[in-house]
């Protein structure tokens, strides 16, 4: 029996999509011109579908630090954090993140995905409950699958639905409430004040994933919990270096006095190689720079609001009533129009993300734009103009 | 074997999403017979939880393929309090 036969329906679905000149799953970026521009398929293209929110990928300090680390420490650690894979740089990075969050402890993981796997699977034991939002990122779901806890799901961002479920759980059981600050498909922010207050009322420890909100939400860029003034209700923050920080890796921070024991029990932390010294060095510089980047934060929000307003005024069906993050998503009517729109937009010189089930909630087809702090106002206006032209070209009513 | 009353309550919750008018019976499966996608099933699970005032953990769902299996699981959870 061919074990790959079970995927035939996926191959068929994939083959049925009407792409002619480009394919969203096979895009190759040939040349990167800047944080916001690249050559794709020989065309000069505005990048509007990266997670480079704070535009740190070409930060001079981060690049210099990475080059120094390469020269002095080599290309990789070739080992686990708990064996030979912890260098001085890894400790300095953990200290920089703890300082950024004004918390005591930090653990650096090799990716954000692994940070969620490692935290959720270790914290949620056999007799515990892990309570998650239905629209959680795959890494949260996978962290749940990896652990032994009982998993309870509540309706996306619906704190009344959450409370009804928490009320039914045993009062004295261990409970971990896992939520995100910003959800990456629609770009909608969570009502963290209500959610975390309810969680605390029912005795939960709380983990907030600020992957898509770190860098620009809150005065210091710590995320939505800071923005809403509820940092005291967060037991664990989780984050990534692969978005605002501009490289790759993940982290968890906490004030919990026993936090460090997780280094000995979290398998995704232990059984993988640690980050290369160059990545660690650039992440450290980038996080230090982000802390001081008040102006950049302000410009990013201006860009997000300008793009949201522009597309809304042009008649697009927006996924959020206003810009709640630098992720601005529009609904597309169906998979056929969606694929045509995405392809045509790329030919117009704008790269955005097409998002389809199962990554999206409720079977939606979306075109998702991620704004960068380095986008100029002119680029934002150009993106809007090209969206309008694309809608006309594919005959989409807006 | 689940009680008729439990099955009827679950039928009532499925009725609004049973767009194809499939005959509801204990052995009907959600994915194949009722052709419900996973997101619709998720909403249905939430409705069943609220109706019976219970929690149906995510870990249990892969084993619940038919209406009767859900009804049995609901009764078991209710009886365990």
**Quick one: overall form of chain B?**
globular
In terms of DSSP E residues, the strand content of chain B is under 5%
CATH class of chain B: Mainly Alpha
Terminal CA distance of chain B reads 19 Å
Helix content of chain A: 25-40%
Order of helices and strands of chain B: HHH
Task: State the major sheet of chain A.
Answer: 7 strands, mixed
Short structural description:
The complex is a heterodimer of chains A (398) and B (81). Helix content of chain A is 39%, strand content 18%. Chain A contains 14 helices and 16 strands.
Description:
The complex is a heterodimer of chains A (398) and B (81). Chain A is of the alpha/beta class. Chain A folds into 2 domains: 5-54 and 294-393, Aspartate Aminotransferase, domain 1 (Alpha-Beta Complex); 68-291, Aspartate Aminotransferase, domain 2, CATH 3.40.640. Chain A has 14 helices and 16 strands. In chain A, the strands form 4 sheets. A 7-stranded mixed beta sheet of chain A has the order 4-12-11-10-7-5-6, sandwiched between helices. In chain A, strands 1-2-3-14 form a 4-stranded mixed beta sheet. In chain A, strand 2 and strand 3 (43-47) form a beta hairpin. In chain A, helix 2 packs antiparallel against helix 11 (277-291) and helix 4 runs parallel beside helix 5 (138-146). The longest helix of chain A is centred in the last third of the chain and has 20 residues, at 294-313. The radius of gyration of chain A is 21 Å and the shape is globular. Chain B is mostly helical. Chain B has one domain: ACP-like (Non-ribosomal Peptide Synthetase Peptidyl Carrier Protein, Chain A), CATH 1.10.1200.10. Chain B has helices spanning 4-14, 38-52, 67-80. In chain B, helix 1 crosses helix 2 and helix 1 crosses helix 3 (67-80). The longest helix of chain B is centred in the middle third of the chain and has 15 residues, at 38-52. Chain A binds chain B through residues 134, 144, 150-153, 155, 161, 164-165, 168-169, 357-358, 361-363, and chain B through 37-39, 42, 46, 49-50, 53-55, 57-59.
